[in-house]
Amino acid sequence: MAKVKPSIPKGTRDFGPIELKKRSYILNTIETVFKKYGFMPIETPSIENLSTLEGKYGDEGDKLLFRILNSGDAFKEIRERNSDEKISNFKFQNSDISEKGLRYDLTVPFARYVVQHQNEIVFPFRRYQMQPVWRADRPQKNRYREFWQCDADVIGSNSLLNELDLILLYDEAFRKLQISKYELRINNRKILQGIAEIIKGKEFLNSISIAIDKLDKIGEDEVKKELIENKFTENECTNLFKIFKLNGTNSEKLLSLKNILSQSTEGLKGIEELEFVINSLKHSSTQSPNLKIDLSLARGLGYYTGCIFEVTAGEGTIKSSIGGGGRYDNLTGIFGLENISGVGISFGLDRIYDVMDELKLFPENLKANNTKLIFCYFDEASQNYCLQAINKVRNGGIASEIYPDIVKKISKQLDYANKLEIQFAAIAGENEMKEGKFMFKDLFAGTQELLSIENIIEKLK
Amino acid sequence: MAKVKPSIPKGTRDFGPIELKKRSYILNTIETVFKKYGFMPIETPSIENLSTLEGKYGDEGDKLLFRILNSGDAFKEIRERNSDEKISNFKFQNSDISEKGLRYDLTVPFARYVVQHQNEIVFPFRRYQMQPVWRADRPQKNRYREFWQCDADVIGSNSLLNELDLILLYDEAFRKLQISKYELRINNRKILQGIAEIIKGKEFLNSISIAIDKLDKIGEDEVKKELIENKFTENECTNLFKIFKLNGTNSEKLLSLKNILSQSTEGLKGIEELEFVINSLKHSSTQSPNLKIDLSLARGLGYYTGCIFEVTAGEGTIKSSIGGGGRYDNLTGIFGLENISGVGISFGLDRIYDVMDELKLFPENLKANNTKLIFCYFDEASQNYCLQAINKVRNGGIASEIYPDIVKKISKQLDYANKLEIQFAAIAGENEMKEGKFMFKDLFAGTQELLSIENIIEKLK
């Protein structure tokens, strides 16, 4: 076996013990809230058929799918089908040799799951799912090729109470994580539809959505340029930006919008939906979620049809979203089950981690190591003496380990304990064995006393 | 978007809520034991460079790797390098268009991790890792293409105390899972080496290992045939099988073996190692692990050098292994870090699940749904009344949901609750609102009473 300098693919990461403790802390916090809100877990395979994935995330998404080479002689068919052609002339397709791809998000596999298991599911179905996804994106700061999403969706119910519930869930989870300045922006695709109608025509919803989605990144001038390339007039652009820049509280914005969109049935429907959500919040919550109507919020994914959400941290240097979601009226339709409306939100574990790390929001008591007590000794006899004792300690439910190698110097063993921040050590030498006890050390406090193993267990419990 | 009949790749599975609860139960049980024994978590990427994976699992393993197509125009290089050749003449290599693959096990990525992070690690390093792996194996009963391994390894210590600790860990975990009839078979590669020396010659270790690994599957006659094809004589085969079929207790087997291998230093070293482990167990454990020396245990993977383990359920129809492991003296060597010995064990989540499902070993109280209380109502007014209350219930830490749609028939809402096995319902109608209370139903017991929300919270806490 040739020697290789070890490395991992760009955009992927190893996680050491302390990083994993922090990641688990986030996952557990979110999962606890998911459960408290009545959501049930599912998991889907990492590998999906490309027929399930392709065409669901737009052209850009198709490019970013990780494709898996067919097993065996992947090229057999190519060779046979095109035997006389020169290689230079033949345009190979990835699909010629690949039928499967890695999960790109959790929503499309969920829709596939719902259709495939429709007879086992009790609707409305409240499901959560916490799994990695993969995108062959250009890696950069806070953007990875393997990252985790934590999704909660309610499918099989049109009720806006679900939007409300998900907003409350977002609020509780982010507060629990101490990201209490989070900003939850909300908009509605029907309002965007209405705006398109009023400004230029229904069919321009997409070009407007794509353009304003970039407002934050490229600024008003560039967005305007793009719109004009898409046949918008100077005047239409001015009117559009006037709407996106509407000022005031949520209620004031909705009021202005009602006038602007008074001729659009669809637009008024969108306003009504936002109104319901915002009014219902008053009934249900003692403290208001940090909810803000943002008319320039569009969300790239084509399947959204109603309310849409996006969350940012609200402080620190990371401005990109740490969560998002929305209502989709017919996502399961592509898989053959029509008219099942759903709404969902997603937490981005990795960005949330980066935010919490920067803002120092992790609890201070997270430790890489779980061991409470380490056994140290000098020779074979004291090793056997420790072996008897560790069994009792572990039976008492106390996390414990025994230093594995006989090293005469006890300081080397304690050095190991100190580096791993293990607080307690039980040391056995000739004297301790004679007394039937251990030298019990608190390595943090620097104290020690001679104790029986039973007393040590009692102290640590 | 074209309609596609939803399906998932063969060998992969969806997991619904109750299956996931059971899987979590196993994972949590194993993880609790890992922590109790002082192991620390790491995770490695699902995607590794093929240079890390290839050549580590034998030719068979290389064939079973899932390879990921390079992003962008994967064929560019092929077209350019071979422009004039005919497709039919050109032998494409998977490596021409693929540089990355999916994780095949947790041990090789762990070795890669140790070398890459050697300066951050405190040795001896006790790590655990619980993640999925992927193999393009032929799917069959109890064999999947995506499955989970749960590994614990100690690296950076030669001490046999680690073997002992891992045996105790296996014992505790399988007993906690109620797989109390598990069989842990143990052997030592050095003994196999000694047997090869005595019977025919050192260099025949591999052909002996490969052949006897199949003893269970194909039987003695077929193994003999294979050995004879590999230049073994009839007589050598007879001697070999005599050893593999040694009878008696562990101590008796070791005694016989000492005579047989008395001329092999390596063989005697292996016997000594097993003796140490078996004798130390007497010091450390109140109950004996179900440990049995099996001289025909070989384990396919080439990197093992000392003790090797394999676990089977010991009852039921599933005979294939649910765990395994062993000592490897220089696995990190391939990545440039020499002379670091390690030993590890693995739990196969999916097989353990299949065993527990067959033997009905899961706790009976595992439920798909977490919701304790569901709110039901008749109209918008009572919906708002419920919204105020659910907030209080959730603040009290009680998992709760509100039926999302206004359906006049309360029976439809209760039907949903019954299907999900939700035990308690709080119903709000005109009368309840007038009294400032809820009709509190125990759907399991079939009882009900009129209670304030505070009383309900108290009851459910």
Main CATH class of the largest domain in chain A: Alpha Beta
Q: Any low-confidence stretches of chain A, pLDDT <50, length ≥5?
A: none
Please indicate the count of domains of chain A.
Answer: 2
What is the global morphology of chain A?
Answer: globular
* Lateral strand order in the biggest sheet of chain A: 1-5-6-11-10-9-7-8
Protein chains sharing the most extensive interface: A-B, 123 and 123 residues
Please state the second-level CATH architecture of the largest domain in chain A.
2-Layer Sandwich
Question: Would you write up a description of this structure?
Answer:
Two copies of one chain form a homodimer. Chain A has helices at 17-36, 50-53, 58-64, 76-81, 107-116, 161-176, 189-199, 205-212, 215-229, 234-244, 250-260, 265-284, 349-359, 380-395, 410-419, 430-435, 453-460; strands at 40-41, 47-49, 67-69, 98-102, 125-134, 146-155, 183-188, 291-293, 307-312, 323-328, 342-348, 373-377, 400-402, 424-428, 438-442, 447-451. By secondary structure, chain A is an alpha+beta fold. The first copy, chain A, has an eight-stranded mixed sheet. In chain A, strands 13-12-14-15-16 form a five-stranded mixed sheet, sandwiched between helices. Chain A folds into two domains: 17-359, BirA Bifunctional Protein, domain 2, CATH 3.30.930; 373-460, Rossmann fold (3-Layer(aba) Sandwich), CATH 3.40.50.800. At the A-B interface, helix 1, strand 1, strand 2, strand 3 and helix 4 of A face helix 1, strand 1, strand 2, strand 3 and helix 4 of B.
